[in-house]
Design a protein that fits this description.
The structure is a single chain. The protein is mainly alpha-helical. Helix content is about 60%, strand content about 10%. It contains 4 helices and 2 strands. Strands 1-2 form a two-stranded antiparallel ribbon. The longest helix has about 35 residues.
């Protein structure tokens, strides 16, 4: 095992110097790099899939880019609020929000 030193910078942050990657992590750095790449690949596939299906969802539900992406509540919340307002104006109880996949 190598000598481990702890250094401080001008801001008071501490750094451990002298340990190898295997001593510190128990595995080589390439293993950690491949693990991070696999996580990014999984997230990227999901993002690509969502991006590919958004145009069809927009056509099917009448959503607009501004209504879905640019508002903090999104189109689903506005649709539920609109349905509740319509139901209360007609005197019937509001319908529960729908969860469709």
């Amino acid at each position: 095992m190598t000598e481990v030193r702890e250094l401080r910078d001008v801001y008071g942050r501490r750094y451990r110097v002298g340990e190898s990657d295997r001593e510190l992590l128990g595995r080589p750095r390439t293993w950690i790099t491949w693990l991070a790449a696999a996580a990014m690949l999984a997230a990227g596939v999901q993002q690509y899939g969502f991006g590919a299906i958004v145009p069809e969802l927009s056509r099917a539900h009448g959503w607009t880019f501004g209504g879905v992406v640019l508002t903090p509540t999104g189109a689903a919340s506005r649709a539920t609020a609109s349905a509740s307002a319509t139901a209360s104006a007609s005197g019937s109880p509001p319908a529960p929000p729908s969860c469709t996949s």
